[in-house]
Backbone:
């Protein structure tokens, strides 16, 4: 797409926003640059628009660097250590806890994991996109860090040994009530089967006049928090149909189901989502 | 402890010459920044971790092909960004359920809500709504602070392309982040349909 190819609304005497952005970024040249620059110099509105780009740059500069999760750091360290031991087979393996793996095996491990994820994807009903978010440690351990896991289902049971590591995933002390054993408990394997139920419940509630949003209990009963959390779910689309407080892989969590044009998308987010200081719902695992 | 003050280039050369620890030392030095770029490009931590791991393995094997005409960090970023973009392209050809995009523009109510939210969250969210190529350019130039020339080298495109992608991305971010709400004639400041893919 080239600059200026998009028709601006005819009555506007102002350059298109994209043109102003091009000027600001030094994309425009020669006569066109002069013309737009002259307009901006005499137009408070367009001057303000150009100033907005500096505002955007300032916003971007101010973004805090996301810390690398410990589980990712460990995984990379392990991969690099494997490369090193594979490259120098004469070196003794210090801890002997992990056999030196040739590079080809690393590739094979990742390929096996991909195949497993693909197989899981095939099993998901096409109408649903399940996104599991807010479980940095659990998701990554399940699919990334455990090279010896050969279970074809990729189910939740492999997560149990990682429970001790999960403390840093929430970043805050859990609400005592959040560990309420009465919460409906799901794993990555069982939740899929219950998504249709959740949707049916939602439909029933809607037709009963309870509105399109329903919240059983928990922090997300607060609509501001719910909105704040939902807004941080990357890629979410459509209307928020249902929110449920659950336990997911043993951890308190919320399921957000969005619907649009007969398509539903379910996201599982950590229970700290939307709180202040900001805890965005980070999408960590996608099964399509 | 041997020579902790070795430069990036020295470490990479040492690695190519068989120093078994040099590469890990090099990566440890830069991995937070590489992670930030991978995460923001991929939007999903697990995918970012996969891409970063692929990239580091590639870099490990390709260290001998590094030429000192660019900084080691630029070279590393190029490998990481390429690994991310490859992954995104592969993901796009998979028969996934497409996520429908919203119609032209963004509802005003949505902008207002976003403007009220914590700025960093809003910015990350808006960044995720850009097309991949605009986002990658903005990450490198506006977030990581790379000069346009370096970003162009990392992305393998002309400098003008980087500038243009950044410009269009900023225009869309300005709308998404509500920086233009106070202007009159809002129709004139809507940067095209909100497909998230414009400017490609």
Residues:
């Amino acid at each position: 797409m080239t600059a200026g190819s998009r028709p601006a609304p005819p009555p506007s005497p102002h350059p298109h926003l994209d043109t102003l952005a091009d000027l600001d970024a030094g994309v425009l040249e020669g006569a066109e640059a002069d013309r737009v620059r002259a307009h901006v110099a005499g137009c408070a509105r367009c001057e303000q628009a150009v100033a907005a780009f500096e505002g955007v740059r300032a916003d971007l500069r101010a973004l805090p660097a996301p810390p690398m999760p410990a589980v990712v750091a460990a995984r990379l360290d392990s991969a690099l250590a494997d490369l090193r031991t594979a490259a120098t087979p004469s070196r003794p393996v210090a801890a002997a806890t992990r056999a030196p793996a040739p590079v080809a095996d690393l590739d094979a491990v990742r390929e096996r994991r991909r195949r497993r994820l693909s197989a899981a994807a095939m099993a998901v009903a096409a109408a649903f996109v399940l996104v599991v978010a807010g479980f940095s440690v659990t998701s990554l351990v399940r699919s990334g860090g455990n090279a010896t896991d050969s279970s074809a289902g990729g189910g939740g049971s492999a997560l149990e040994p990682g429970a001790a590591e999960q403390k840093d995933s929430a970043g805050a002390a859990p609400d005592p009530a959040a560990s309420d054993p009465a919460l409906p408990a799901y794993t990555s394997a069982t939740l899929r089967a219950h998504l249709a139920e959740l949707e049916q419940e939602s439909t029933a509630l809607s037709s009963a006049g309870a509105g399109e949003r329903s919240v059983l209990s928990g922090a997300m009963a607060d609509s501001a928090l719910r909105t704040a959390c939902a807004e941080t779910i990357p890629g979410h689309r459509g209307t928020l149909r249902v929110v449920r407080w659950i336990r997911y892989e043993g951890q308190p969590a919320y399921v957000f189901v969005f619907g649009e044009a007969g398509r539903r998308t379910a996201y599982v987010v950590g229970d700290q989502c939307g709180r202040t200081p900001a805890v965005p719902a980070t999408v960590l695992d996608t099964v399509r | 402890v041997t020579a902790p003050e070795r430069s990036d280039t020295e470490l990479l050369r040492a690695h190519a010459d068989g120093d078994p620890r040099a590469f890990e030392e090099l990566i440890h030095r830069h991995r937070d920044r590489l992670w930030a770029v991978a995460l923001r490009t991929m939007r999903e931590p697990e995918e970012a971790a996969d891409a970063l791991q692929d990239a580091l393995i590639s870099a490990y094997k390709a260290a001998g092909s590094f030429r000192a005409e660019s900084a080691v960090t630029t070279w590393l970023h190029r490998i990481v960004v390429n690994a991310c973009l490859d992954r995104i392209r592969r993901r796009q050809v998979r028969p996934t359920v497409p996520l429908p995009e919203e119609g032209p523009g963004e509802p005003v109510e949505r902008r207002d809500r976003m403007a009220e939210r914590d700025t960093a969250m809003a910015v990350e969210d808006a960044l995720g709504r850009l097309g991949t190529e605009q986002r990658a350019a903005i990450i490198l130039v506006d977030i990581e602070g790379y000069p346009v020339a370096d970003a162009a080298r990392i992305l393998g495109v002309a400098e003008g392309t980087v500038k243009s992608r950044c410009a269009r991305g900023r225009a869309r971010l300005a709308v998404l982040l509500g920086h233009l709400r106070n202007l009159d004639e809002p129709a004139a400041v809507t940067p095209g349909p909100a497909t998230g893919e414009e400017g490609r």
